[in-house]
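From the shared-data thread, chain only:
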Amino acid sequence: MSEPRIAVVGATGAVGQVTLRLLRERGYADVRAFASARSAGKTLDDGRTIEEATPDALAAGDIDLALFSVGTSASRELVPHAVRGGASVVDKSAAYRLEPGIPLVVPEVNGPRALEHEGIVANPNCCTIPLTCVLKPLHDAAGLRRVRVSTYQSVSGAGAQRMEQLRAEPQDEHNLAMDWTWEGDETDEESKIRAETQKILELPELPLSATTVRVPILVGHAEAVWIELEDSLSADQATELLRNAPSVRVVDVPTPGAAAQTDQVLVGRIRPDRAAENGLVLFLACDNLVKGAALNAIQIAELLLTRTGDLLAAQ
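Structure, as tokens:
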């Protein structure tokens, strides 16, 4: 297969910058950077010139694969134009995640679903990705009955501007805004984690309750997870399952600092939940800009590229 023509849309944002770096490290050469009109014409550190992400530019027919790292409204506006131009799109916003017929994919969990796309594959929430990486092997072994999760999310999840604000302000003076909107008595972030986890694991009735908070660190999300299983599974058995799970690394005490700039979900503190039958408690940490966003999207893209190469080879 010839070198894929890749577009990174939202290239100046926190996730977009990581996406460009990872693509470069993985050897992709034909990569174009797109952003808003205010960034168009500027030069990135690697010498790449930023192009304006307009409908006409994205629909021109010279892009094979588009990785979108923009807001929900911008994705809804621009993604259809990239698809119209013949590109396969991996979108990191919430725009298409819960749309019927659009795959929502964590490659280690439900990778084959990506190949069912009709132009768009959705990349999950930055907390849903590591959570499902950990839940999947436990579900396969003993069945999930109920999940509760509390997330502690770094400011990078709110974008590059919030990271700069934290750098400029003492932590004890930093205003930790919720960043999410309320939907009744929970935030949209909390409902996203529940709905996306149910979709990815194909467990639409799975009871899941989430509480999300922002914490004053730059990069890395952490999650405390309480799991009730249908069948008995000891902490030692769960630990062994997770040691063998793809993209998961068992450690004594996971921290966002240890997870930063790594490709893996760190999980530890695996122990019985003494308040629940067949219950387990664990703690995980993940770099929300890498595996929690950019890397997961690139892994989806590589599934699509592999399938395209196989089809071309078969012709």
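The mean pLDDT is 93.
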